[in-house]
Amino acid sequence: MNIFKRVSIKKSIMALYIVTILITFGIVYYLLFSKTTIFFSVILILAISLLFLRFVDKMLKPIESLNTSTKKFTDGDFTERARIFREDEIGSLARTFNELAETITRLVKNLETKVKERTTDLEKTNGVLQENKEQLKLILDSTAEGIYGIDTEGRCTFCNESALNMLGYESQSEVLGKNMHLQIHHTKPDGTLFPASECRILQTFKKGKGVSVNDEVFWRKDKTSFDVRYSSYPQHINKVLIGAVVTFMDNTEQKKSEEHIKYLTYHDPLTDIHNRLFFEEEIKRIDKENVLPVSVIFGDLNGLKLTNDIFGHSAGDQLLKDAASAFRKASKETGVAARIGGDEFALILPSCDDKKTDRIMADIKHAFEEVHSKEIIGSISLGASTKTSPEQGLAEIIETAENNMYRDKTMDRKRNNKRMITKIISQLHKRSLTEKKHSENVSALSKKIASEMGLPEAQINRIAENGYFHDIGKIILDDNLLNKHKNFTKEEYREMQQHSVAGYRILNLFDETIDLADGVLSHHEHWDGTGYPKGIKGEEIPLSSRIISVAESFDAITNDYGDKSRTLQEAIADIKKYSGIKYDPAVVDAFINVTRQTGQEKNF
Q: 16-30, 61-75, 80-94, 157-171: lowest mean pLDDT where?
């Protein structure tokens, strides 16, 4: 602070002094006009001047001191104090200055203390903020979800590690400040461009509320995409919208799981076609659309139980798959094929009239016959109905189609059964020519024995048929065991013994052969009860089984698959030997008579 802003007091007094001297000198000169007077006047003036200058110096020194002190103080020397020369106005001013300087110095010291304290607090606060910032970043980077922020222009403001990893970026610098819609959200799942005006993330700003989406994709740095589930929420500060925070997850596996669950909900897991639930929902949809004409085809497998019993459930499963394949092939693009029950299938055909439906049913049967394995026994019964007017209910059409299917199943039952039995025995004989020859020989000899015993003609014919099918259960054996005739291991023998039970189950499934089942089941029972599978004896054993037992044993001994070292007479002697033990004596007697009548010929 400078008290003298323009002209110093000293210079002002000096100017006043000079002016005073000149004026005095001029007055004296005017009055006296003498040199002596002038001389003394000059002396007087000089004396007065000296006294005046001394007085002025004494008067100005405190002011100059105060001026110097103020200048040092204003330059930052807060220890500077003004010197007090006397108790006058200048001294009072100097004292006031000193008090002011003391106050300012005290305030500055207090301010420095406060600043230091505030600086320390600020450093602590900044440290806490930095620690919180690092902790927040650690938390954000530790989350499985990707998180990024955008401003109101859609530009990225931050991005956590999970987001960078999922998007294929190495650092935030690659996305900060970038328009995130153009960066990762520019294209729809179908490959078409995604306009920013349709972006639901950016619509968060316009609507001012959050949104959750699970049917879109994000695009990685390498131009590949992934299914994404994201949420976008607006971000406000003091009720002012400043941007949005987006959280997202790679939804690829979740979507696959959901699609898999949905697939399992509407599909049959075995046959891979639609199930009953989907079929019923599809009926409601098609019925509402009123697409005419609409045809429905119902199908039911024949021989599934037989296939399961003979070949096992894996073969039965294959039969179901083959039927499903035939229905799927017939459905083409417009129809809906479904498995609606254990062995039942259905097909809905929009815009399909009855004539076209008849052709499709023929195609299904043909496709089923072509596609299903030759090792599997089975056929399919079909029925159909067509809705031709809006007044008809689709439920009524379905019921009619199902009834027509059962009618077809009933009408073709005998034909289908005969075909299945024929196919089983044909498959057996195809796999083993020895078994074919054995069946024919046992059938012929059994017929002769039954005739010799004087049985009715009808019974004789059924016994001959029983003889032909007696080993049908061997269809369950593998080829190695089927064609093996001696030297069985214990395990092989136990497995071989199952053929009589298997034959019983097969023949018991059909009306045409149900009366033959007991004869097949017991043809290895012995007269004394030592046979299998039930260990029954004597007349508990069905007559047909007792006849087949003798015929089978004789054929096994006398043909190529038997013991070639034994003669015909030895074979007959062996049968006689076990009469009353293994064989029914009455049957053995009839057998002996037959051999005599035929001249003991090898083949009957």
A: 16-30
φ, ψ dihedrals at 243, nearest 5°: 160, -155
Cross-strand pairs, 219: 225
Architecture label for domain 144-256? 2-Layer Sandwich (3.30)
CA–CA distance, 378 with 376 (Å, rounded to integer): 6
Over residues 74-85, mean pLDDT:
75
Question: In terms of Cα–Cα distance, which of 449, 423, 474 is closest to 555?
Answer: 449
Strands 379-387 and 294-302: antiparallel
CATH topology of domain 267-411: Alpha-Beta Plaits (3.30.70)
419-597: CATH architecture: Orthogonal Bundle (1.10)
Distance CA 368, CA 370 (A): 5
Using alpha carbons only, give the angle 574, 483, 305 rounded to the nearest 5 degrees. Answer: 110
| Pairing mode of beta strands 344-350, 294-302 | antiparallel
Q: Each residue of 403-417: pLDDT tens digit?
A: 999 999 888 888 888
Q: Which long-range contacts (CB under 8 A, 24 or more apart) does 486-492 make?
A: 486/563
Give 423 or 474, the one with higher predicted confidence.
474
Give residue 243's pLDDT band: very low, low, confident or very high (50, 70, 90). Answer: very high
Residue 193, both tokens: 């461009």
pTM recorded for the entire structure: 0.62
Q: Would you list the domain boundaries of the chain?
A: 1-142, 144-256, 267-411, 419-597
C-alpha 596, offset from chain centre: 79
